[in-house]
Input
Amino acid sequence: MISVAIDGPSGAGKSSLAKRLAADLGYVYVDTGAMYRSIGLYATRQGADLHNAEAVAALLPQIQLEIRLLDGTQHIYLNGEDVSEAIRAEEIGMAASAVSAHPPVRAFLLDTQRSLAANQNVLMDGRDIGTVVLPNATVKIYLTASAQARAERRCKELQQKGQPADFATVLADIEQRDYQDTHREVAPLKQAEDAILVDTSDIDFDESFALLKRTILEHI
Ligand code: DC
Output
C-alpha cells in the first residue's frame, strides 16, 4: 500500500492541497485534524475544561467517530451526527489543538488512523503522521509557510465567506496554535527526519499543487 504523509502547521494549505492531490492520484484522503476537531467539538458542547486531560479523557468512552465518503468527500460523524461543517469553526480549531495535547486523546485516535492506511492507498494529513502515525509512510512531506502568509490566506478565505477577519487576531491565533502544537509533550508537530520540506510562502495554490504532485510521483 502507498501512504503519503503530509504534516505541517495550521493554515499551510494542507487539507485543500491534500484533497486535490488525493483525487488526482486516486488515493483516499484522510483528514486527521477532523478527528481531533470532532473531539474538540464534543468536549466544548459538554462544557469540559479543554486543558484538563482527565476531564477530556473521561468523555472519550462517550464518543463514537465514523468517517464516510460521500461523493468522494470525507464526512465525519460524531455519535451519528454529520459534524463536517460544525468542526470548521475557528474556536473548534483551537479546541482541537487543546484536546490534542492529551495523551489519551491521541491514543484513542491512533489505531483508527493506522487502520485506515492498512488496506488502501492513502494521503493522510495532520501534525504527527510522518513522525508517529505512519513512520514508514512511502513519502513524507512537511508543508509549511510563514505565519504572515498563512494569516493573509486565512483572512482572504474568511472574507470570501462573508465572515469578519481582523488580520492581527488571525495572525495571533495562528501563532498560538503553532505554539501549542509544537510544544506539547506527546507527538508535537515537527518535521520528520526523512520528510521533504515544502514551503509555500511565495507560491500560489496551483504552483504548490504541481510541486507536491511532482515530489510525490518522484518518490513512489
Ligand atoms: O489540521 P487542523 O487545523 O484541522 O487540526 C486541528 C488541530 O488538531 C491542530 O491544531 C492540532 C490537532 N491535530 C493533531 O494534534 N494531530 C493531527 N494529526 C492532526 C491535528
User: Anything to note?
Assistant: The mean pLDDT is 96. DSSP finds nine helices and eight strands in the chain. The longest strand covers residues 65-70. The pocket of 2'-deoxycytidine-5'-monophosphate is lined by residues 10, 32-33, 36-37, 93, 96-97, 100, 126-129, 177, 181 (CB under 6 Å).
